[in-house]
Here is the input.
Amino acid sequence: MSELSDPRLREMATSIPVYGQLPFVPVRAAGCDIVTADGRWILDLYGGHAVAALGYSHPRLTQAIQKQAGELLFQSNAVALDIRAQAAEQLVSVAPRKLDRAFFVNSGAEANENALRIALVATGRKKILAITHSFHGRTAAAGAVTWNNDKWYGFPEKPFDVDFIPRDDCDTARAMIGDDVAAVIFEPVQGVAGAYDLSADFVATLRRETAQNGTLLIADEVQSGIGRSGQFFAVQAYGIEPDILTSAKALGGGIPCGAVLCADELAKRFGPGDLGTTFGGGPVASAAIVAVIESIKSDNLLKNVCDREAQIREHCVVGPVKKIQGMGLLLGLVCDRPATDVRDILLEHDILTGTSSDPNVLRILAPLIVEQQHVTRLAAALATISSTDA
Ligand SMILES: Cc1ncc(COP(=O)(O)O)c(C=O)c1O
Here is the structure.
């Protein structure tokens, strides 16, 4: 590739430089493979940042998007659409039982922003609790409940009172959750923090204490949702029902979209004009949501997620990997060295993985269609890296 046509240099010259980018340029992708401009085939176990639930070029998803774009590319929420109704029906059918109302948005941060707004308005309270190590997005409200974000992404102050419960500390959770708290927001599996799965006791404590105090419990399943945990939503594995749940990333399999789900009694407190968005619930995004959910069901992908998780746990504690945390295909491989070093070596083997905010944790966010042979390849590549205590 000549310097003049290299998109890395052209993006560097034309974009605000906020992303550290990987050293390859994808030109197409199919299944779990990315084909690069210089002809490499890279096994994508990072799933496009947990987005590519069905991998790439999945026939049902691409056909649904193409068909919808040809028939009706866009109409806003000013009109009702059959395809939007189908997306909402599909989504609530796989969500925890009492979450039977959907509000569609465009991203994870926007979903959390609206979930927090719903909680503050519905309770009339001013305080939100989040969990240490959490990540909820980069907008004003989502950034305010993100851990270790002292500068609030450049906003001069937080839009409401926020405090953080130390993760997995049940006693402090009990002490902090009172009748002044509008909501507790939590990721059942903390994705950016390294796929750290909260303890079942802690999640049960959050549910019990919020219920007792009239506080709403918001599950941020932007990263853990839509099958990635081995259930449609990770809270289903924990056996709890939150009051509000947010989804994005894999929801559209690559088409930008997000959703806030809540119970009927909460939804009834909102009327025309209280929430809104131009693009949320657009027809192409809705068609993608339907195709993603139907494919997960018809291709038995939840079982595949559980099988591949078991295979990774059995075969990938090798070389630099000392232990594995997380759930389903949202896994953190805890390494004996900086995860960036391990990621770079795996990339030399044409395997793409991700890092996290925990310097020693490598993240696996594979497409839900990932195959046995792909995990075998990962295990073999990890085994070529000698452990520091070998
Ligand atoms: C748990 C969680 N919530 C929210 C977000 C923000 O989503 P988005 O980047 O679509 O705004 C992310 C993104 O990584 C996330 O992992």
Q: What stands out?
A: The longest strand covers residues 321-327. The first helix runs from residue 7 to 14. The pocket of pyridoxal-5'-phosphate is lined by residues 107-109, 112, 135-137, 187, 191-192, 220, 222-223, 248 (CB under 6 Å).
